[in-house]
Amino acid sequence: MLASKGITDARNDSWLLAEYVFEITKADYYMNPGMTVEQEKSKRYMALVKKRADKIPLQYITGEQEFMGLNFTVNENVLIPRQDTELLVEKTAEYVRMLEGQVKVLDMCTGSGCIAISVDKLCPDAQVTAADISYKALAVALENNKKNKADVCFVQSNLFDNIEGCFDIIVSNPPYIKTGELSDLMEEVREHEPMLALDGDNDGLKFYRQIAKKLDRYLKKKGRIFFEIGYDQGQKVPEILEKYGFRDIRVFQDLSGNDRVVSAGKE
Questions:
Q1: Hey, which bits of the chain come out as E strands?
Q2: Which terminus, N or C, of the chain has the lesser number of Cβ atoms within 10 Å?
């Protein structure tokens, strides 16, 4: 059914749904491939397969996604955490560990909270605040904070509107898809993930400009910004940061060799 609907990972997704519904592992299956299942679970399994065939993302069906070794609740109010974003967390955490004493970190556009919570769990010296404009996204983030026994402080804010104080590190994975390219996204993303977290305006750079413009006020003198960027923004985002006086600008590539993270300092 999934293959006939053009689901790229049909075999894998059908198996993951089986694990989810029947609560089995592959080892369980191979030890007893002829096992029978309860009729109600069988019906539920086929109902979920149909949902996946309708291009509803697997993670929204199961309600969870693994990220940085942690399990996060996800729904249609937040972006599904991607492996590429783990590089942003890794680079941020590396820098936190280089600093002495308590390190104040702000995660802007937090969504599910996966970045903020991961940094909090990885870095005992980090005092993490996370902000998002969406109350619905923050409800998911708060659930994930409790679920992962983290200690992040969440704030509803349109970028810096409700943010107080200065930070050693500001990290952000803002919306960066060009408005004209949204229609080219996979149907699963285009039809089900929140446009609010995807649309970066005509050139995809709107939120980098808006954040960079305010960094001087909210980033400490020796502070550092970490951005996730689109694969084709490895020159444009550094140019924005240069315009606002940032130095020591570094661009890091993901596992596919694409520009994925930009980091810069005020000195």
A1: 64-67, 70-73, 103-108, 126-132, 153-156, 167-172, 219-228, 247-253, 259-265
A2: C
